[in-house]
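Page 42, continued from yesterday. The earlier attempt failed because a stray header line got pasted into the input along with the sequence. Redoing it now with the clean sequence only.
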Amino acid sequence: MDIIKNIINSNKKNFVFLGEAGSGKSEIALNFAMYLKEHGDKPVHFFDMDMTKPLFRSRSSLVEAEEAGIIFHYEEQFMDAPTLVGGVLRVMRDNDCYVVMDVGGDHIGARAVGGFSMELNKVYTTVYYVLNAYRPWSHDIDHIDGTLVEILGVSKVLLENIKMISNPNLGHVTTTDDFITGHEKMSTMVTPYKDIEFTCVHEDLYDAAKDKVKTSLLPIHLYLTYEWAL
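This time it went through. Structure tokens are written below.
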């Protein structure tokens, strides 16, 4: 996996996933952690930072993550009362491990990491912002700009430290044409302002899509979906 190997060789150790609700960042964060565990040489700590939303939280794949050898962190909640998982700064500052953080959607969820801004803007941390051309918050550049400004404001991440990820998907029903159309739309909107670091594609579409786009592709397995959609 060239993308992951290049990232590992870049001496980055902390990877934070931000983005609007429904962009697919939890799915991407889980896949990213799995790839780090497979190709890296350090323990992988995964933090589910989603404090309230009951649907499609990465903690729903706790068993799969732990079976893969990932050290999973989240806070037990009572009736989805907002609670923040602890121990974050300790492992973010530990050079002998990787950290993957799945941060709850929009600016409300992004408040969860504002207190770690001193680490979020360090050279060994990469902050990814996930964009999905099929979600209303990424409908046009004005929507993207508005949501991003709010998220950066509360997370205290500097704009120059943000790396963009495109995730053009409609869930398990996504076709190759859907992927290409969404990819091209997002590239046209965003690349005049900021490069897209890589594009995510469902693993079943990877072979059909890999020669049709110019950006690097990260194959994604769907860990978070309803049973009747499998």
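Notes: The two ends are 25 Å apart (CA to CA).
Reminder to self: strip header lines before submitting.
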